[in-house]
Amino acid sequence: MPMKERQFLRELLVREVIPATGCTEVGAVALATGWAIQALGCSTDEVEEIRVEVDEGTYKNALGAGIPGTGETGLRFAAAMGASLSERVDRGLQILENPSSEAIEEARALIEKNRTRIIRLHDSKDIMIRTMVCNDTDEASAVIRGSHDHVVGVERNGKPYNGAPVAEENFWALAQKVKSLKYSALIDFIKEMNPSELPILRQAMEMNMHFAEEARKEAPSLSIGKVMEKHAGRGLTGKDLPAKVQFVTALAVEARMKGLDLPVMACAGSGNQGLVATIPVVETAKVVDASEEDLMRALALSYLTTIYIKAYMGLMSPVCGCGVAAAVGAGCGMVFLLGGDILQIEAQINNMVGTMAGIICDGAKSGCAMKALMAVGLAVESAYLSLENVRIPSTDGIVGREVVDTLENLQRIIEAGMSSMQSAIVDVMETKGSNGIGSEE
Question: Please, what's the b/e burial string for 358-381 (b: 16 or more CB within 10 A of its CB; e: otherwise)?
Fold first, then answer.
């Protein structure tokens, strides 16, 4: 493949596979707030107000997400924790990891004094987080846009704050560049690459499987873990692939959504996507006794496929990214490990997208584990079908002749057919109760 494409895909993996602790939306709000407090330059007890404006996707995804190590959920507490942990802004999306009891108490004090306010923005289609803070004499702000850790501006009293590493990367142009590639380029890349030149792959595997191991220790306190272990326990021999993949993946996602205080390697903007794109591939490699080199290639294919599909779906899609992107990526990695060729890998994408395209994203919460359970189970069963050249015909539904046709159809459904879905989902969630989060009219 051309050197330029090879270099782009290598850089794409490094850019889109990054560590995060806790839900990436609560982490992003904490990060924006941390930078604003840094620019303001005062202690939390001097802060008069923290006002955070967020796009609907961020708002939706964080309503029920646990804050690591605190037992709390939601955006208001995430913003308060960002203020109390502002000295950690250099950690990016790991800002919330292992908070001290003092930091938690400072955050609770801000909540009790009603110093934090969250505003839902109705007119932003992409990630947009703007935090404004003030004390008696000064004010400061920080803006994250386009991606969860993409800080585009930090100011103090209307002037740029020099201490912030403001990014200039154009994420919309990046998505277009990803979509300009044929899917076959991804497969060419993983076959030709030198895995040792991409240590991020091994780091992702080790971090996410360690998280899964720690999550398993929490199984008795997690509803899905408890039930799945009861009914599938005798099958967890390493040979019962569907049960093992579903159990381990669902358990990890549930633990993460409940705030297990450990980092995961996120993929395409989501830690859950990172777990779903990793665990099934690693478990499959164990069953087929794959070489480490083949495992790394399969993981690279899984991550790149996830990123590729998300370029069409959008980063904050009303469609479930774990199911329609990450589980599909994992399925492609599994087909690769099971000896599939390019046509069979492409069949896996068409089969899974054609089956799961209608799964909505109704926020990050424990229920995501159920979607992960279903999606990775389908990935296994679909892999068997794809390997036997069973493929949903291109005359059916939204499935196209080529992968790109299917994904363009998916994009059209999301953009033209689901334009009001994000707002409708949030309205339903707010009607049930929103942890005191207010909406901008």
Answer: ebbbbbbbbebbebbbbbbbbbbe
DSSP-derived 3-state class of residue 301: helix
User: Could you tell me which residues are beta bridge partners of residue 151?
Assistant: 144
> Residue 101 and residue 112: Cα distance in Å, rounded?
16
CATH code 3.30.1330 region(s) in the chain? 20-169
CA distance 368 to 385: 26
Q: Is 158 exposed, middle or buried (0-12, 13-18, 19+ CB in 10 A)?
A: exposed
User: How are the residues of the chain apportioned to helix, strand and coil, as percentages rounded to the nearest 5?
Assistant: 60, 10, 30
Helices (H) and strands (E) in the chain, counts: 18, 10
Question: What confidence tens digit (pLDDT) does each residue in 352-372 have?
Answer: 999 999 899 998 888 899 999
Instruction: Assess whether pLDDT exceeds 90 at residue 130.
Output: yes
Its CATH architecture, for the domain 20-169, is 2-Layer Sandwich (3.30)
What is the pLDDT at residue 289?
94
Distance spanning both ends of the chain, measured CA to CA: 51
pLDDT at 228: 62
Predicted TM-score of the model (pTM): 0.90
For 99, the 3-state DSSP assignment is coil
- Tokens representing 48? 């008069």
Please give the CATH architecture assigned to the domain spanning 172-422: Orthogonal Bundle (1.10)
* The token pair that represents 328 in the structure block: 């599909």
Residue ranges, comma separated, of all CATH 1.10.4100 domains in the chain are 172-422
- Give the span between the Cα atoms of 43 and 441, in whole angstroms: 32
DSSP notation for 21-61 = ES-HHHHHHHHHHHHHHHHHTS-GGG--EEEEEEEHHHHHH
189, pLDDT greater than 90: yes
What's the rounded Cα separation, in Å, for the pair 274 and 131? Answer: 27
Percent of the chain topping pLDDT 90 = 73
CA atoms within 13 A on the CB side of 20: 32
Task: Tell me the average pLDDT across 196-225.
Answer: 87
